[in-house]
Design a protein that fits this description.
With 297 residues, the protein is an alpha+beta fold. It has 14 helices and five strands. Strands 2-1-5-4-3 form a five-stranded antiparallel sheet. The chain is elongated and about 70 Å long. The C terminus is likely disordered.
Length: 297
């Protein structure tokens, strides 16, 4: 058999494999509404494309067995979306790239050391937090609570979703209206989020998070489909606080030495903007309220 015929057979087998795995999934299994007028079982091509972060046209070509280039990242997205097991993942990579996939990296929750917590606590007027690879805030200082959350009790009651920076950015309408440069900030945070996704792409947590964000946020769907990847180190943020008013920050990301899965996010008040003084007043107000509550008991 000629080489070209073997390649055609491989592309045809890949196309049939993808169609069969798409057909066995229901919309509910991937967090989508069922809707109406489904003539055939399973997901539509457009739905798979949206969840995988590729264009419907490109995915259609893939299912038609065309000779197109496929990256490892896209294949891992399809593994996640189509709920492939380890054997199916191997088969997909062999059909698409003629090579086995890289090993899957397993996520484990990192631990914040007391020294790291002490460091951010000493950044008195600089809201700072520790962020894991999933973009969950796992530790914070008093200034971060005062500016971005409210009070310490509220901060401790937040569940994992409410502590996720990406979820908060894309699901809180007020952020879009009051934060200057929101779209660029959202794009850069999401591009950094995708780096973590690339490492843990077969982790079901990412599939659920991406599917639910895609369902509730048109901005997320649009930016996620751009496939931007940025290892962000610095930035700028102009934030509207309901009590303090405009707060102007320079943003600095620092990688911790103790864990590759932890980064520091530090908001440094810009000089001559009054931001540091406003944060001091917020902290003083919070301290006074806490003292009054303690006295009342």
């Amino acid at each position: 058999m000629a080489v070209n015929e073997l390649e055609l057979d491989r592309h045809h087998e890949l196309a049939e494999f993808l169609r069969s795995r798409r057909a066995r999934l229901s919309p509910e299994q991937v967090g989508l509404p069922r809707g109406t007028r489904r003539r055939t079982p399973g997901l539509r091509r457009e739905e798979v494309a949206m969840l995988a972060g590729v264009s419907p046209e490109w995915y259609t070509w893939l299912e038609q067995g065309r000779d197109i280039n496929v990256s490892m990242q896209v294949l891992e997205s399809l593994v996640r979306v189509l709920h492939l097991d380890a054997n199916e993942r191997d088969h997909l990579f062999l059909l698409a790239l003629r090579q086995p996939p890289p090993p899957i990296e397993i996520y484990s929750p990192p631990t914040v050391s007391p020294i790291l917590q002490q460091f951010i606590d000493q950044l008195t007027t600089s809201p700072a937090c520790v962020v894991d690879v999933r973009s969950n805030v796992v530790a914070w200082n008093a200034a971060y609570v005062a500016v971005f959350i409210g009070d310490e009790n509220e901060a401790r009651e937040l569940n994992e979703r409410d502590r996720n920076l990406i979820w908060r950015i894309f699901t809180r309408p007020a952020a879009k209206h009051y934060n200057e440069g929101w779209r660029e900030m959202a794009r850069r945070f999401l591009a950094q989020f995708r780096i973590g996704y690339g490492r843990f792409i077969n982790d079901p947590w990412w599939a659920e998070q991406i599917a639910e964000l895609s369902a509730v946020s048109p901005e997320f769907r649009e930016l996620w489909a751009q496939h931007d990847v940025i290892n962000m180190s610095e930035g700028h943020k102009l934030f509207h606080h309901p009590l303090a008013g405009e707060l102007d920050f320079d943003i600095l990301w620092l990688q911790t030495v103790e864990s590759d899965d932890l980064r520091l996010l530090i908001h440094t008040p810009r000089a001559n903007t009054g931001t540091a003084e406003k944060i001091e007043r917020l902290l003083a107000s919070e301290a006074n309220e806490t003292a009054q509550e303690s006295f009342s008991y």
